Protein: Elongation factor P
Amino acid sequence: MASTSDIRNGLCIKYNNDIYKIIEFLHVKPGKGPAFVRTKLKSLTTGKVLDNTFSAGHKIEDVRVETHKFQYLYPEGDLFHFMHAETYEQISLQRDILDAPDLLKEGEMVMVIINTETEAPLSVDMPASVILEVTYAEPGVKGNTATNATKPAKVETGASVNVPLFINEGDKIKIDTATGSYVERVKE
Structure:
């Protein structure tokens, strides 16, 4: 058992007969009344995100998990195939377990969180950012250079990302996997 003082991002807990991962949290100590912890929880079985408040000192049941490095191999419908980096054992995961499946490139290394009690994969942690090549982008219109003007662009994984007007086909861009947004152009 853990208490609210042990809450941190990435902690997996049992709550309402389901396993949740803490996405973000905030310890709040108001001027009046007891302290509490405001959390945002993501269900590892359904993918739903819910807000919850725990009072200070509340006991929470944590789930023992291990993280292993896996390499993404290929998609097959709604299944995504991964290979363990050390044992070469292959697993298949449903699309809804992944945070940003559209940004996964074949050969990409990810961290898979596995429940040690049941040996079941719970979630996939993507790298903070990925570098992908732009396969299609409309040409930027000359004179349309208002502040922060963007256009949609397709990347090699098939995802659509809003990019600045100066990005062209063939450019490599860095994309933040948490938000799915453009970060910068990558020069090689």
In short: The CA atoms of residues 1 and 61 lie 5 Å apart.
